[in-house]
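A note from the maintainers: we've had questions about how concatenated examples are separated. There is no special marker in the raw files; a new sequence line simply starts the next protein. For clarity in this README we add a label.
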Amino acid sequence: MRILLLTDNFVPEINSPALRAYEHAKRWVAAGEDVTVLTSIPNFPTGRPLPPYRNRPYQREIIEGITVVRVWTWLAANRGILWRSLDFLSFAGSSFVAGMFQDADVIVATSPQLLTGLSGRWLAALKRRPWVFEVRDLWPDSIVAVGMMRENFFIRALHRLEQQFYRHATRIVAVSDGIRDRLVARGVPAEKVAVVPNGVDLRRIAAAASPESLRDALNVRGKFVVGYVGTHGMAQGLEVVVRAAQGLSRAEIHFLLVGEGARRQPVMALAHALQLDNITFVGLVPLALAAEHLRLCDAVLIPLKRTDQIEITIPGKIFEAAALGKPMIVSAEGASADLVQRYGAGLVVPPEDPEALASAIMRLRNDSELREKLRQGGLALARDFDRERLADAMLEQIRLAAGAAAMPDR
């Protein structure tokens, strides 16, 4: 079967959509499928091409058996509405044009940027092929939820487009039960929607290097290190971490924030204004080095802002930390908090509450038995969310879509 996967993000980018697409596609190739990925130049979240890539109209490469076709897009940093909208719209157009020349038996379009679905639908109609819409985030709801935009004509137009995608897609795959439930509540037939959650490549995580040299480079030897590794965006609300660090400035606790994003500069400015010397900011790092920074941490933070999307959100960072056996402090409510509590993999505190976050950090620092208990819970969670098994589940949904389209009554 020839699978054409449309995704705005792909390795060497290291955000959750890029890793999910890559690790799924790699598994599908191993299962004997012919996989072509249509994507953009690696640039997330800075909007600048990662060396040695350049923003050209068409580039083709092979990554672990996956045919990767990269197209030109209007590059924009992960901040602001206008330039990001141009980025998303240009990818829809460029991927559609490039996709016209790719053979496919089934097309898979993945969010979180909704307009990838536009290209998927167009290509499916042009080629008369089934298509699967993978819903990783409820756009445009999440745009409004984090305060990037208010309800307006543009948001209403996106809602109408979103409903068209749900109606025309052969199959829909949500990444959480909460997203599936909201789709069904909006009138999407339940039998059309499956759930394939996020997970982690246990083999990749196991290969992460020892962080001893990194510990010395960051001057954190002998300290209890609390870390966050990921996008510094609006949905994370990392200001709460800085405020917690302020409350623990006299403890032998060091905070490590690794990554880039729309809120990185304001968060750094807050730490500077508070004259904190117990927090270190590290910019964007390659995938292997990101895992090394995670391995360095004694506890991992998973913060989320309180929005109407928090109930259905399960950050991919949870699975990465769990696979490394790192105790987590989840500053959230809903699905992510429930998951961590169910496995006993971390402590849960209210979102945007620096005092509660600081208290949980101190509790972990002072209780080695608790840390070991949470470590074991995390490892159990990671085993149940092994990416290989989940990639197989996604492949089954793709095969269902292909089979449904082949039925005579269709």
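[label: protein 2]
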Amino acid sequence: MHPDPLGLIGTTVGARYDVLSCLAVFGPRVIYKAQHREWGRPVRLEVFAGAAEQQRKAFVDAGAAIAELGAQFSAVAQVRDGGTHAGPGGPVAFVVSEWVEGPPLADAIVSSGRTKFPPEQVLEWMDPVLDAIVAAHRQGVVHAHFDPDAFWVVGTLGPRASFKIDGLVEGAWRPKLPAGAMPSRAPATGFAAPELASGDTTLLGPWTDVYGIAAVMSVLLCGSSSAAMRDRALPSGVKYSFDKALSPRIDARFKTLAAFRATMMEGMAATLEGKSRPNPRRTMVVADVESQMAEGSAGGFEVSDDDGQIDVPRPSRSKARVRLAYTQPAMSVPDAIANLDAQRPPLPPTGPQPVVAAPKSAGNFVALLAVLLVVAVGGGVIVGYMLFR
């Protein structure tokens, strides 16, 4: 149990929620366990004690956005209420979410006594999560601090377990913060994308979540997100997709979760079928464009068939040159050469060849006679004119 910086324990927030205990403190955002006064059921209470009314309203609006997502996706913790409250230290904003009976994923992994899980099991757990995050990205919501503590496990970590995403309210609220403000909770070591350390929110985007999700999945698949462990324990078909997703460079990473998911599933399917993935995808740079991103950003935009419609708004400060690129499967060089050879016309034989005289053309001879006749007739007419003039 944490100290209560807002003095809300023992009070009733929003006239319905009796505050029982403080679970975590992230600067001005505090997490409580509370109980619905009439129903007697526990709830998770997030409270924001910012001084600006506009920021408090933005926090409540963020809860409403995640409530809409939660109505569509089971992997999103359900948001059930929100509003403002006159607390002991001044007005606060609050968002009420469902109380998930289950441990964080980090604790569930330790309790399981296992260091890695079968690929098909990991995919079953993560598939609903990926669906929800892709939808969140389409609405401009970037979580930005995925790690094993960002998920609650419903049930024991086995075939019937499911995950609930924690922290999406903060992700929806972040774009409303002043430029430069960072998320209140930093990911655990080994799960934070390098751009989080820059202090510049204009560098955050879906690619930041790609890094965190890939790190979490790597832990589930091989026990660690380190490159050395991935090389030893990841299935061969998915090494490329995880190496790209966990690149420290934004411009070398998948820019959307949909692109990472498509490439990973392609490799995973080949692995489960006992095949090796023949060719990795490659990113082709097609243009340099002006972008409203922070100057000096290493960011870029990647468009492919499965993620071309995603539009994630970000705060802007100045223009910078970025790369517009798309991803496609890399060609098979031997196959490409064979195809070219099949389409190329046969070359003429090499070496000395006998010289064959070209046959004389009758058409050319007749044309020559006609020209001479015209000249002769013309000359005779001129001479006769001069003589009889």
